[in-house]
Each structure stands twice: as C-alpha cells, then as structure tokens.
Write a structure and sequence with these properties.
Blueprint (H helix, E strand, L loop, with lengths): L2 H6 L1 H19 L3 H21 L6 E3 L3 E3 L1 H25 L8 H19 L3 H19 L6 H32 L4 H4 L6 H17 L9 H7 L2 H23 L4 H26 L5 H23 L4 H29 L17 H4 L1 H15 L5 H15 L3 H25 L14 H19 L2 H10 L4
Antiparallel strand pairs: 1-2
Helix pairs in contact: 2-3, 2-5, 3-4, 3-5, 4-5, 4-11, 4-14, 5-6, 5-11, 6-7, 6-11, 7-9, 7-10, 9-11, 10-13, 11-13, 11-14, 12-13, 12-18, 13-14, 13-17, 13-18, 14-16, 14-17, 14-19, 16-18, 16-19, 17-19
Length: about 475
C-alpha cells in the first residue's frame, strides 16, 4: 500500500488508533470521562481529516475500497452521528451508573469504523466484513443495559433476524459470484444477467432491505427500538441506515439495463408499501420510540424512491436529492433522540418516551420542547425546515420521471405523517400533569445540539447555502 493510499485512509486510521487507545485506557485506568474524551477527540480528528482531504474524484484504495465524493459525504454524516451519540452518553449514563462506560465508547468507535468502511467498499469481502463489524458492535450497544429485560429481548431478536438477513445477503453474493466469476461489485453486475445472477441480486437487496427496515422486512424494528436504551436507538436509526443505504444506492446504480424494468417495479412497490404501512402504523403508537420506528420505515420508503428514480433519469441529480434528504432525516432524528436521552437515565428500567409522560414538556423544559418541535416539523416536511427541501427534491425527481404512483403515495404518506407529528407537538404544549426529570447536559453537548438545531432551520430558510455547494461537494456536473 502506497503513502497516498494511506493518506486517503487517514480518517479510518484515526478511528482505528482511537479504538486501540480506548482498549489500552480501559486496561490501565478505568474512567468514563477519560474514555468519552478519547472517543470525542478521535471522532473530531477523523472529521477534520475527512474535511481536509475530501475526495474530488473516484480513487481506488487497494482491491477492497474506493474513495469517492458521495462516499465522503456519507462519511461526514456518519461522523456527525458518532459525535452526537458520544456527547449524549455522558449525561444519559450519569455519574453513579451501575454500568461500565469505557466499553460503550469502544463499541461506538467500532460501529463508526464498520459504517465508514462499508461506505468505501467495492469488493464482496470488504462489504461483508464491514457490515458484520458494524452490526455486531451495534448488537452489544443495544443490549448494553443488562438490567432491562426489553433491551435483552430486542437485542436477541436483532441478533437472530440480522443473522438471517446476513445469510440471505451471503447467498445472494454467492449466486452472483457463481454467475460472473467476479468478486468486485462493478464486475459482477455486468450485463446481461442470467436467471442465477438476477436471483442473487434480489437476495442481496433483500438482505440490505432488512437493515433498512423496508416493508416487508420491517417487523423487527419497533420491538428493537423500544427495548434498546434511547441513545443506542439513536445510533441504530441513523448510523446503520445511512451506511447501508450508501451501499444500496451504489448497487442500484450498477443494475444492467436489461434488468432495470423488473427492479423498478419491485422497488416501487416496496417503497409504496413502506410509506403507507409505516405512516399508518405510526398513527396508533403512544410510545415515541415505536412511533419513530414506524416513522423510520416510512422515511426509508421515501429514500427508496430516489433509488427507483436513479434507474430512470440522471444519476447525479438523484445523488444530490438523496444526500439532502438523508441529511434532513439524520439531523431531525438526532434532535428528537437527544431530547429523550437528556430526559432519561440508563439505570432506569424504562426511558421517558411515552407520550403522556411528555405532556407539558414546554412548560418545564422550553428549550427541549422547542428543539423537538422543529425536529418533528422537519420530519413532516414543513416549510422553513431542511425536511421540506429534502421532500421537495424527491417530489421534483418523481414528477420528472412521471412516477405518479410514487408522487401520490409520498403526498398521502406526508399528510398522514403530519397528523401524528402534530399530535406529538400538541402534547408537548398541553398543560403539564406531573413533574419531569431535570435535563442534565454538559455545555459542549448543549452547544452541539444547538448547532444542529440551528442548521436544521438555516438550511430550510436558506437552502442555497448547501444546495449551491452540494453539486461541487459531490463533484456533480
């Protein structure tokens, strides 16, 4: 490996060094504050290295990885999520927690490492290793509180079903390899594709659809979301979704022309079912975690619309749209789960996440209620929020393709979503029935959450601040 390739891998190498530092620190001196500090310094250094060395074109790094502008953008999103989770874990765990803290930050860095490698993968071997590194680390994070029965139950479901999905993914790659004799993603999807190759490709997409919680492979999502500690749920609903979708869209763009029509039909129905079923089931939820789980199913359906459109029109325009929409989804999800994290404690048997428990939040914690309100308005796609710009991108692309079924479903799903999001907002501003716990957060955490909330509004009011730059960031045009 050359020095240039090592330089391109600098963000990944920094995270790897942080993992080693945390392992040494845990064996030498146990300290949750020191572990959090090492984790945050590692993530911020990786973020700085990525920004300083942002890719302007496609560059190959050995046979396993590649460095490209869209992958760099997804890596920025992943690091933003990792920093948010690390900052929130301190107040969530508390000073007198029964759980040890160092391992959480180690697992967090391992998850970030797996996600970033997955975004850069170009070979079957690197795809499988990256997914397993991310999934196994996340599995331990989901079951981190050993005193919660629901957390252990959710982690067990995730272990069994995720293992089954990975088996399906491996079977799909095996069929593609048997058909093409190639293990590079680009080479194995060369047209024309026979029946074996098409079957393998469908199995690969099914395995990834499980990770993305797309209908009909969504059934695990609500139980795992509800059982996991709320800060771990934030990691699951953002980091894994963004990383897996980066691989998903990469494979979609490689579909040969003779298979496009069948794939468009299959993915369109999957997107429609996810948008309708996710929003409909969210209407019936009193648990905010379960509501966000079904909302995630619906939003992954919206993002899948971009994948369908990518096979019909200009790829570069789709990459711009999906990047903006995923940014909007991640920012809103971070803010919502940040509020729940600051109001909950890891050692409690259950997080504060039922709607009746949040009634009157504005009158006791006005800044938290305000942040949650603008985040839900963004998820609903209301004007002056970044979510509105994200949905506008996807609707514009769908209209350009004349995909009227997808346009209609997006509009109906957005209307239903607006109803249950407003129900949550009205609950926050209703008269308070009981006292709520104090929200404890360090100044750095408050500043970070404030910056994310400000960016949500700023990019919604002035979308040109990012929109004009996104094409150059992704090297589009």
């Amino acid at each position: 490996m050359s020095i240039q390739e090592l330089w391109l891998l600098l963000p990944v190498l920094i995270i790897s060094a942080g993992i080693l530092a945390l392992m040494l620190q845990a064996s030498w001196k146990r300290s949750c504050y020191l572990a959090q500090g090492i984790c945050l310094v590692t993530l911020f250094l990786a973020l700085a290295a990525l920004i300083n060395n942002y890719p302007t074109d496609l560059k190959t790094i050995t046979i396993l990885f590649e460095y490209e502008p869209i992958g760099g953008f997804f890596s920025l999103l992943l690091l933003m999520v990792g920093i948010s989770v690390a900052l929130l874990q301190g107040p969530y765990m508390g000073a007198n927690s029964k759980e040890v803290a160092e391992e959480f930050y180690l697992l967090l860095l391992l998850s970030c490492l797996g996600a970033m490698l997955l975004v850069m993968s170009r070979h079957i071997g690197s795809v499988i290793l990256s997914i397993e590194l991310m999934s196994l680390s996340m599995l331990a994070i989901l079951a981190y509180n050993r005193e919660r029965k629901l957390a252990l139950e959710g982690a067990m479901k995730y272990l069994l079903l995720s293992g089954a999905a990975t088996s399906v993914l491996l079977m799909g790659f095996a069929l593609l390899y048997a058909s093409s004799g190639q293990m590079m993603l680009v080479d194995m999807l060369q047209s024309p594709m026979g029946l074996m190759a098409k079957s393998g490709f469908v199995l690969v997409l099914a395995g990834l659809a499980f990770k993305l919680s797309l209908v009909p492979l969504h059934f695990w999502t609500p139980d795992v979301y509800q059982g996991a500690p709320v800060n771990s749920t934030l990691l699951l609903t953002t980091l894994s979704k963004a990383a897996v979708f980066a691989l998903f869209i990469k494979l979609i763009l490689l579909v040969p022309t003779d298979f496009e029509a069948d794939m468009v039909r299959m993915l369109s129905w999957m997107a429609i079912a996810s948008m309708l079923l996710g929003n409909w089931l969210a209407l019936q939820q009193q648990s905010l975690k379960r509501l966000m789980a079904y909302s995630a199913i619906a939003h992954m359906g919206y993002v899948l619309v971009a994948g369908v459109i990518a096979m019909g029109i200009d790829h570069s325009l789709v990459l711009e749209g999906v990047s903006y929409y995923l940014l909007a989804y991640l920012v809103a999800s971070i803010l919502i789960f940040a509020v729940l994290t600051l109001l909950s404690r890891l050692d409690d048997q259950q997080d504060l996440e039922e709607l009746p428990q949040l009634q009157g939040l504005f009158w006791q914690h006005p800044w938290l209620a305000t942040i949650m309100t603008i985040a839900f308005l963004s998820l609903a796609g209301m004007p002056i929020t970044i979510g509105f710009i994200g949905k506008f991108y996807l609707l514009t692309l769908a209209v350009k393709l004349s995909a009227w079924w997808l346009v209609t479903t997006m509009l109906v799903g957005s209307a239903v979503g607006l109803y249950y999001y407003l129900r949550v907002i009205f609950t926050l501003f209703a008269p308070a029935k009981s006292d709520m716990p104090q929200a404890q957060a360090a100044y750095l955490s408050k500043i970070w959450i404030g910056l994310i909330a400000a960016s949500l509004l700023l990019l919604g009011i002035l979308p040109g601040l990012l929109g004009d730059q996104l094409r150059s960031i992704l090297s589009i045009g």
